Amino acid sequence: MSDESATIVQRYEPGKCHRRSIRLKNYDYSQAGAYFITVCTQGRECLFGGIADGEVRMNEYGEIVHQEWLQAAILRPSVELDAFVVMPNHVHGIVVLRDGGRGTLQRAPTLERFGKPTSSSIPTIVRLFKSVSTRRINATRQTPGAAVWQRNYYEHVIRNENELKEIREYIMNNPLKWELDEENPDNAKCGGLMKHGR
Fold first, then answer.
1. What is the DSSP code (8-state) at residue 15?
2. Interatomic CA distance for residues 66 and 139, integer angstroms
3. What is the 3-state secondary structure (H, E, C) of the chain?
4. Along the 198 residues of the chain, how does pLDDT read in single tens digits?
5. pTM of the predicted model over 0.90
6. All structural domains of the chain with their residue ranges
């Protein structure tokens, strides 16, 4: 076999197993506004507790996720958290980025670029939330390096008050609709807390 035939050149073929970004092209995710975020566990494993009588029953891992979600606003004066819920295998939340901040220095608007994160951008907030909660959960269950979250996450730029109201209602009603939730992989895997199992 010659060196020439041993070299395999992979040609880019759009539409064939390539991860594509779900982010809005050229959108500055550090600009002021409200964002709806959903982050799912790896394999949609029901890791954070269960649902009983339409209410979330968080276990110790769910409590860690809850605490770390709250840290986003504690650590960043320009971040406010609106409605959020920790479900058995995902988190829904509204993150509000404000202009400026409470007595902080104004920074020049910059677009986040790969390898150069912007501290109060949605990608950085989600990345740090996932990283710290993963580290804490893995320390608790003694599984260093185990994946907790899916690689990506869902985000939606909230464009008006009506949309904000609808998304708040969706988040608050999510536990009541767990049986119908598309993130519910198999109710039996979620600790058997379902009132009406399938």
1. T
2. 16
3. CCHHHHCCCCCCCCCCCCCCCCCCCCCCCCCCEEEEEEEEEHHHCCCCEEEECCEEEECHHHHHHHHHHHHHHHHCCCEEEEEEEECCCEEEEEEEECCCCCCCCCCCCCCCECCECCCCCHHHHHHHHHHHHHHHHHHHHCCCCCCCECCCCEEEEECCHHHHHHHHHHHHHHHHHHHHCCCCCCHHHHCCCCCCCC
4. 444 444 444 444 444 443 444 556 666 677 889 999 999 999 999 999 999 989 999 999 999 999 999 998 998 889 999 999 999 999 999 999 998 544 333 333 444 444 555 667 899 999 999 999 999 999 999 999 999 999 999 999 999 999 999 999 999 999 998 877 777 665 444 544 433 332
5. no
6. 26-101+115-179
- The CATH homologous superfamily to which domain 26-101+115-179 belongs is Transposase IS200-like (3.30.70.1290)
**What is the amino acid identity at position 149?**
W
